Amino acid sequence: MNRAPGILITGAAGYIGGSILADFLSHTNLSAAATLNAVVRTEEQAQALSKLSVNVLRFEINDEAAVTAAVEQNEIDIIVHAANSSDPLLVINLIQALGRRRAATGKPVYFIHSSVTTLFSEEAGWPHGMLKDTDSIYEKEKELGGTHPVRQTNLVAVEKAEECDVTSFIIVVPNVYGRGNGECRKVSILIPALIQAGIKLKKVHKFDTDGSPPAAHISDIVALYGILVDRILRNQDVPNGKNGYYFAMAHRAPWWAYMQAIANSLYARGLVVDPELEIWPSDEEAAEALHFPAQFIRAMGTASGGLEPVNSYRLGWQPLWNDEAFLERADEEVQAVLDLDTIRTSLFDQLLRPAMD
């Protein structure tokens, strides 16, 4: 009897990772075809996930020995890395562990890395304009180089996987919204920060330039991960490695219109003095109010970017949310922020560290 493949989800206590785990567990065909393992960092997170039908592992991904032991002892064949998009060391540790398993068993192993769409905007230094996920993205990133931590991590993911005989994929995540269904964090980062800043300042702000960045509801995001993993489990040949970029873009987010919807919602609740939007006095003040790295604030707040998902749709991805639903249900996002704890994640601490050193 063949053993069920082992899947390891990093960031399983986070917004996206936790929602991926919940989605995988809800699909009986997927959960029956594989053994699910979830990585968390704290005992509190481990306790929160312990009631689920998943093997909960607690270790630090920056600990190479711990990663290797976890992959070997739990017979991991597929890693869904949703914990961090900007730390190459984590990617190296995970892929090398998979490579050792590949060498020991002779069976294929897979690494799914989570990146971000803001990387491919003019504001983030992307010079190539309109981009499809079927284009030669790896070559363009390699040629561009630079010190952007997310771009560096993308390149490491592709190159280290090729070196270790690991099949790799990069899902490029846009602005994500909606209430997640994981056990711990249930809201995203950017939109809750904008809402919280409006409440604190008693006034909702917008940037001096309107943006329309790629966006997707959390339910559509996790559906794409599920489809890709299902194709892997079925041994279907799908684009991977240097050709394995997947834009998870369901629609665009018209920022000024959305911030107006947020302002209307907050004003109706008596949380701001009026529904009129105000321009941020400066990028530095916006960064301080939102608790985001100043060097990335333009890309996060004003970017549009010309991205077109092709690989994602060829997989069979059919997102259910569009820009109209995004705008119409902005009040739900406000309510989620009011209902739920919105602690900061380690992602921005990681991005801030070089600026503080």
UniProtKB/TrEMBL annotation:
It comes from the Eukaryota. Residues 7-225 form the NAD-dependent epimerase/dehydratase domain. Coiled coil: none annotated. GO terms for cellular component: cytoplasm. GO terms for molecular function: aldehyde dehydrogenase (NAD+) activity. This is NAD-dependent epimerase/dehydratase domain-containing protein. It comes from Didymosphaeria variabile.
